[in-house]
Amino acid sequence: MLDYISHLWHLFWLRPDHWAVLSIIPVTAFVTWIHVWMALRMVFYPIKFWGVHLGPIPVGWQGIVPRKAGRISGIITDNTLKKIGSLAEFLDAMNPNEMADIIGQQINAELEHLIDEVMYERNAMLWENLPFAIKRRIYEHAHKQLPQLLHDLVIDLTDHVEDLVDMREMVVHQMENDRELMVKMFLKVGQKEIDFIWHISALIGCFFGLIQMLVWFIVPWHLTVPFWAAIWGLLTNWIAVWMVFNPLYPHPVKYPQCFKRTKNHGFPWLVPIIPRMATYNIQGAFIKRQDEVSDVFAKVVTEELITLKTIMTEMMYGGQKEKTRQIVKKHINYITDTPLVRTTLQLSLGAKEYAKLKTDLIDRSIEITMVPVSDPAFNASRARKIFTMFRDRIRDLSPHEFQNLLRPAFQEDEWILIVLGGVTGFIAGTIHLFVAFL
Fold first, then answer.
1. Are residues 278 and 304 in the same domain?
2. pTM (2 d.p.)
3. Element (H or E) spanning 77, and its range?
4. So which domain of life are we looking at (predicted)?
């Protein structure tokens, strides 16, 4: 047997193209590694369109994720976020009573300045000449009513958040306006899977290179080099992406284990062990990391996507802002329509100007409420309150539901990535043919 193998090797070495044939395996592995890296980059970059427009036809490229930000974020919201919880649950977990106290403390410090500012805009001469005793009574009345007003307002907004904010619209709007955030979210959640696809592609390329080398012995036709390179390019990209999400459920497989992996100085090494039967669970690389990904995704969502600031911004300035204004108006009227304030202001301003003043107060109340809500430290404190709930619910998702956190990024225009693998494989195979075989 050894003599026969030696004879075959000798005959192979006598071939004039032996170096070209031997180069098939490393070249296929390297080219596969490169074009998979390029395909993965093209999923996320460039964030803005790069190219030119020939009339209505764009000629260039924009990453699939930033280009389809609205559609992808809508899919994630429908398939995952809405199953994790409602906005009412998230706001309730943020502790509305505590929020009202914090917002009230900050607004209370600016309350007199707010009243002065609105009154000077409406009738500066009147407010300037109004006796200080009357001003002081208005200030004291506002300070007295404010804590309960804010408490009732925050509770009211929390109770009606589902009517005032569409979660899907809020997330889609945010992602379309900040496509870089969309890319960052996917990269944080799926960086290990992206690296896995990239690195496993070289091994797949080696395997396909071996097949191609054997095919060359049977059909030593030059055109088979770019042809098979294109086929391997198509298959590699498809297999690499498939391995990230499939199979959904673990399939335990027994195998003889003679080595174990250990880390020495941070670098993984294989060390021999006493042979034994071990079990390996075959499952999609992303699905396997559900617990780990849950931590990362929950952190991204609670700190950057579904935050108190984004909810309140959509509530105050989004598609249902008029409904929000009506709720704010109802609570503002508790102060402005009391006998002391109403009589004083109607006599001094007139009924028409008094009505305009109430509108100004609503606008300024919304603006000044958004100041503490936009504070990063305040948002961080709210995020900590819903992080655990969010993380635990992601962990409880079924594998089918869980894959939708990352799957849409690859599923949108996935065929482009697969075709790209075939095209780049064909180009690389053609170059390899002219350099090594001709």
1. no
2. 0.68
3. none
4. Bacteria
Is residue 426 one of the residues assigned to a domain?
yes
Taking a C-beta distance cutoff of 8 angstroms, is the pair 33, 202 a contact?
A: yes
Instruction: Read off the pLDDT of each residue in 413-433 and give the average, rounded to a whole number.
Output: 76
Cβ–Cβ < 8 Å for 216, 229: no
| 243 in the same domain as 134 | yes
Number of domains in the chain: 2
Amino acid at 48: K
CA proximity to 186, closest of 360, 400, 405: 405
What pLDDT does residue 149 have?
A: 76
H runs (alpha helix) in 246-307: 285-288, 290-300
205 and 232 Cβ atoms separated by less than 8 Å: yes
User: Is there a contact between 9 and 391 (Cβ–Cβ < 8 Å)?
Assistant: no
Distances in whole angstroms, Cα of residue 415 to Cα of each of 12, 253, 304, 424: 39, 31, 31, 14
63 Cα distance to chain centroid: 14
Contact in structure between 160 and 327 (CB atoms under 8 Å): yes
- Tell me how far apart the alpha carbons of residues 110 and 114 are, in angstroms, rounded to a whole number: 6
**Domain end: 262, 282, 302, which one?**
282
Largest Cα span, the chain: 115
- Per the prediction, the chain carries an average pLDDT of 76
35/28 Cα distance (integer angstroms): 11
Measured in whole angstroms, how far is the alpha carbon of residue 43 from the centre of its chain?
A: 14
Which residues span the domain enclosing 144?
A: 29-46+58-248+285-438
Alpha-carbon distances of 358 from 152, 277, 354, 419, rounded to whole Å: 19, 78, 6, 62
Predicted confidence (pLDDT) per residue in 209-240, tens digit: 787 777 777 776 667 777 777 887 788 778 77
Residue 216 in domain: yes
